């Protein structure tokens, strides 16, 4: 059984609330209706340091876009395929200097 942290990787605050409201998991294929139009794609995980105002969507062209959570009117999961993906950790500039 997946934990909430696995199901909603990196999402918090408003973005997490929206995912839960529409019963959407990270890696879900979704149709999203917003006040700005209709979008289709896969929900990607977020870094825990990112804001809580956007969902990240990989659209069919391969680009990643941010969807403002305040514009979402409806969201439907159309499929799910969990990927083995890890958000790269940012390295500290100080560590890089010390390696010289």
Detailed description of the structure:
- The chain is of the alpha+beta class and 100 residues long.
- The chain has a single domain, classed as SH3 type barrels (Roll), CATH 2.30.30.
- It is 19% helix and 34% strand.
- It is built from 3 helices and 5 strands.
- The chain has helices at residues 4-7, 13-21, 93-98, and strands spanning 28-34, 37-44, 54-58, 64-68, 72-80.
- Strands 4-3-2-1-5 form a 5-stranded antiparallel sheet.
- Strand 1 (28-34) and strand 2 (37-44) form a beta hairpin.
- The model has no long low-confidence stretch (mean pLDDT 86).
Layout of strands and helices, then pairs:
Blueprint: H1 4-7, H2 13-21, E1 28-34, E2 37-44, E3 54-58, E4 64-68, E5 72-80, H3 93-98
Antiparallel strand pairs: 1-2, 1-5, 2-3, 3-4
Task: Please name the defining characteristics of this protein.
single chain; 100 residues; alpha+beta; SH3 type barrels; 5 strands
N to C succession of SSEs: HHEEEEEH
User: Mean pLDDT, rounded to whole units?
Assistant: 86
Number of helices: 3
Which parts are unreliable, with pLDDT below 50 for 5 consecutive residues or more?
A: none
How many domain regions?
1
| Radius of gyration over C-alpha positions, nearest whole angstrom | 15 Å
**What is the strand arrangement across the widest sheet?**
4-3-2-1-5
In short:
This protein is α+β, with helices and mostly antiparallel strands. 19% of the residues lie in helices and 34% in strands.
